[in-house]
Amino acid sequence: METKIFQLDQISEAAELLRQGELVAFPTETVYGLGANALLQESVKQVFAVKGRPSDNPLIVHVADFSMTKEFVESYHPLTEKIIKNFWPGPLTVIFSIKKERLSPVVTGGLSTAAFRMPDNKKTLSLIEKTGAPLVGPSANTSGKPSPTTAMHVYHDLKGKIAGILDDGATQIGVESTVLDLSGEVPTILRPGAVTKETLEEVLEIEVPLDKHLVKESETPKAPGMKYKHYSPDTQVLMIQPGDWEKALYWADKQGKKVGLLATPKIADSYLSADRFVYTDNTIEAATRGLFSGLRALDEGKKADVIFAEVFPEDHLGLAYMNRLKKAAAQNYFIEK
């Protein structure tokens, strides 16, 4: 199969492919999604086949406006209107209890809930509108690997397996959306993202708990990205605490291991001999935007035996960064032997 790269003036062509049951990857402000018509069960099954993703994982349903959710949702949480008004379109996915048999169990993972998002990307909103149906959109990569933040990342993983990719350059945020569960009484964060716990609490004027449960391989997650290990390159990744860089590099040298460095300029500029992916500046925003690109670049370069990655405090956007990095590293920090 030829995988075509679609530009702005070709969105109608991409939408027609989706209506026919083909798969087309699309851009969002977070990462690129692997699009299939959410109403075509066989197309959704192909998403799992192409990604090599376990079919018990629920998928996020992408809509062009809030009204598109009404066909599927059984009941809305009292805070829904305030949440949608403040955070859609944007990097916030919400989980609702849904009506029976309105969405295939292939979409929901067999659960009585489903996840919905309105991405903040004009090309993709137009694509959904022209398709005339919501789109499922897990990250457009081989399952378990770092999520794609450019069309070329998607092409690298899925060329020849999908019909097309709608190109809109690099994504702005770089990690997947926050997932907020609204199917119970208390809004609960199941996956941290750019809409932070602090921001949600400020807007909603309530405490919003974070579910830190790590789902085992045998369990069905309520939302994507809840597995113990995820977003992992083939190369081993170790997280490095601020005071451990010298010890970690000494250990690697003693073991004869070549190091790939994933860090901000303030760290990376001290270790010019390593194969490096340097974030554009020292901020958590730059680190989050560059995390998946950096993991991919160092892994695909195949120059490193181990990737040493910089850590950040686990608050605000740092919570999302560390959530992804911990899973890429299978929860492993460098520990002096």
Please count the helical segments. 11
Uncertain runs = none
CATH topology of the largest domain: DHBP synthase
Q: What is the CATH class name of the largest domain?
A: Alpha Beta
Give the total of domains. 2
SSE order, as H and E? EHEEHEEHEHEHEHEEEHEHEHEHEH
Span of the ends, CA to CA: 50 Å
Biggest beta sheet summary: 11 strands, mixed
Beta content: 15-25%
CATH architecture of the largest domain: Alpha-Beta Complex
What is the count of β-strands?
15
Radius of gyration from CA coordinates: 20 Å
Per CATH, the superfamily of the largest domain is: DHBP synthase
Share of helical residues:
25-40%
Question: What gross morphology would you assign?
Answer: globular
Mean pLDDT: 93
Structural class: alpha/beta
Characterization of this structure:
By secondary structure, this protein is an alpha/beta fold. It folds into two domains: 4-204, DHBP synthase (Alpha-Beta Complex); 236-329, Threonylcarbamoyl-AMP synthase, C-terminal domain (Rossmann fold, 3-Layer(aba) Sandwich), CATH 3.40.50.11030. Helix content is 31%, strand content 18%. The chain has helices at residues 11-19, 41-51, 80-87, 105-108, 122-131, 151-158, 197-204, 245-255, 265-268, 284-301, 317-328, and strands spanning 4-6, 24-26, 33-37, 60-62, 73-75, 92-98, 113-117, 135-136, 164-166, 178-181, 188-191, 236-240, 259-263, 275-278, 306-310. The strands form two sheets. Strands 1, 2, 3, 4, 5, 6, 7, 8, 9, 10 and 11 form an eleven-stranded mixed β-sheet that branches. Strand 2 (24-26) and strand 3 (33-37) form a beta hairpin. Helix 1 (11-19) crosses helix 5 (122-131). 49% of the residues are buried. The mean pLDDT is 93. One of its GO terms (biological process) is tRNA processing. Keywords: ATP-binding, Cytoplasm, Nucleotide-binding, Nucleotidyltransferase, Transferase, tRNA processing. Residues 8-195 form the YrdC-like domain. It is an enzyme of class 2 (transferase).
